[in-house]
Write a structure and sequence with these properties.
alpha/beta, Quinone Oxidoreductase, Chain A, domain 1, Rossmann fold, 2 domains, 9 helices, about 25% strand
Length: about 325
Amino acid sequence: MPKAIRVHAHGGPEALVYEEVEVARPGPGQALIRHTAIGLNFIDVYFRTGLYPAPAGMPVTPGGEAAGVVLELGEGVNWLSVGDRVAYSIPTGAYCEQRVIAADKLVKLPDGISDEQAAAMMLKGMTAEYLLLRTFKVKAGDTVLYHAAAGGVGLILGQWAKHLGATVIGTVGSDDKGELAMAHGFDHVINYRSQDFVAEVAAITGGKKCDVVYDSVGNDTFPGSLDCLRPLGTFVSFGQSSGPIPPFSISLLAQKGSLFATRPTLFVYNALREDMVRSADALFDVVLSGAVEIRINQRYALRDVAQAHADLEGRKTTGTTVLIP
């Protein structure tokens, strides 16, 4: 029987159980796929710990992105063929060897994109796409601040933002991570452990500050992120790796410059298939053009996912990580 990782009770990495599971045949509109590579993301930790509720209840199989091969198709799926290479990003369910999935959540992989690249970039790359092109439309001449610049989304977004003509500032937790970010499009890097990122942003920009701040860190970078924005700037909070932002009065946005603030999620932005396909196509195009390079910095066997989670939470990983079934 195929194997999967399941969480029966919320907890630490030890809650990730590697066990046999039954996989049904695909029904109408579905596809059975065999995974070849699976992406690792911080949102997987949120589902494991219970910070985010599992969409289908417990037990939950974490994992929001993967690539694989079509093994069987259900009735009505006429745009895919057995043997096609496909990839996807949905909230949960990817930590497994095989799964049945709604075919409309899949995209075909073009030649030139490997399975490991796809698994490493679907969630992170489409996150970068909606942040840069839809949440705040970055254009040439804009100044962008991105927290956790050496993370999986950061290394993609830094390259993409630079490709769009922006000045890109990133924060990191170590000098090594700073060097990695600088090699991935960031013009300036601030070590938040040894530097005051608010003061550094002001110095870098000559006091003009940033057009947009992308913040997936949460508690540790708030409200400092707001102080890095020019008047009418946009604060984009799309994660909370250090814990949730505490409640605050909306009048704070007025006090700090009539700021805009939003809390977007990928799965709302790509809820419609046409939006998801456009997002994936934009990602494939920018990678195939060479403007964005997808480097896989860590690989773990699927059965070793508990160690992968421990390393991710311990900030021992950089960039993208894949699990190999």
